Amino acid sequence: MWPWQQIEKLLKLRPPEPNYYLNIPRVMYMPLMQDQGPADHLAQLGPVLYTCAAHVTEGSFEKTDISLSQIKSLTSIVDGPLQRLSLIIADSLARRLLCPVQGFSGALIHPSDYFEQPILQTARCNLANLSPYISTGFATINRAILEAMENEKVVHIVDLSCSTSHPRQWMKLLREFHGRQGGPPEVRLTVVHDNNGFLADMRSLLSKEADMLKIPFQFNPVIGRLETLDFNNLRNTLNIKYGEAVAISCSLQMHHLLVVDDNMSCSGIGQLQKMTNIAQLKKMASSVYSPTSTLNYPQTPSPQCQTPKLLASFLNAIRALKPNIMLVMEQDANHNALLFCDRFVEALNYYAALFDSLHAVAGANPQRADERARVERMILGEEIKNILVCEGVHRHERHERLSQWAMHMNRSGFDHVPLSFRAIWEGNQKLMSFGLNGCQNKVENDCLLLCWGSTHLYSISAWRPHKGSSSGSREHMLVQPQHQII
């Protein structure tokens, strides 16, 4: 018989509501490794989190309850990014323990059911406004598009960024087109998004901007998400005309197409993986002594050796459109590992750095603390839950590293387009404008990596179909950048 009292305790430990942190006296921002005072308590968080994950993998309610109580005690000392992250991870671990219990999996509420859409959309916009990395991505992508469309008279931009789409990116591009030597092109913009109200507001803002700049402009809204589009009829869905120059921008969405049914919990292999998970998590628990080491775990490549069918279908459809350029921005992390322990290590490493960076932004702008709290709870918190709780087709936050994306793109018939020195420089200028010493801009294989300290957070790369097969109507060669850390 299941220990229901233990289950009740597990359910009580959940991340506080977004406005909870607003009522706590804030401490001035400093990097995690420089925390003084509660440092001894913080040093215990890493081992306790790994111990808790091991107990969850074992299926022990009693041991998990003890670990969760320890996490709650350690996180109550001071409000900081690692503490807030630990609460979200604890909630995720509790849910993972409960999922196998008959009836509980279906009873757990999906975020779309308890976050009202207007509030969720506000949180999405808050992330784009707060994050130095998304703003940097927009600046770099825009410059690459401008260079690829330098001599085109009719430009069709397809924004497949869905929930990451932001009118600010395209307002800036319209202004850049306005100042183009020889005059602006006719601009058609197609945006895919699941919120009709957002699309209507975006159409209004951009149409007014285009009118003011006297740029011929057409806005095509497409209701939906990337993974729900009809890849067999993508040209008609996106209203792309033959002969026009096409630029495709896809930010933080393509990983949703990596979904595969990799749930092997009922097989002998699954049992072996469970034993491996427990052994590795316990080893981590005994070897972690400080929160700084949480940010420096070795990175393991994703074991996936084949491009999933959904992603392959999408890339084949994109290649058939013959775009002049395709820009891809993705989280640079290995959250697509089959073993839970590998995902847990990577998630703790990645989100500790990401939470720390947002904490720095809010520390420099205290009036934005409520925005940061919403982003952590509604956007990043739900990503973490999906990575740590869900398996198989239910796990859609399958972030991969730049090398994996290069493999998928090459296999699907795309050539890499080096980002120009100017595109990288403009991105760096945007990143540095936030005034945060931890933000780093790194060039790797002619692509851009955005980092917090030594931790890679996002990658930006450019692609086009193989020449001679489905390449664009005109070759747009970008200048080779110098290999350096800016």
From TrEMBL:
Keyword annotations from UniProtKB, A to Z: Transcription, Transcription regulation
Report motif location: VHIID.
155-159
- Region called SAW, residue ranges: 389-464
List the residue ranges of the region (Disordered).
466-486
Q: Determine if Cell division is one of this entry's keywords.
A: no
The answer on whether this UniProt entry bears the keyword Membrane reads: no
| InterPro entries per UniProt | TF_GRAS
Q: Which residues form a coiled coil?
A: none
The record's PROSITE patterns line, in alphabetical order, gives: GRAS
| Family of the protein in this entry | Belongs to the GRAS family.
- What name goes with this protein? Scarecrow-like protein 3
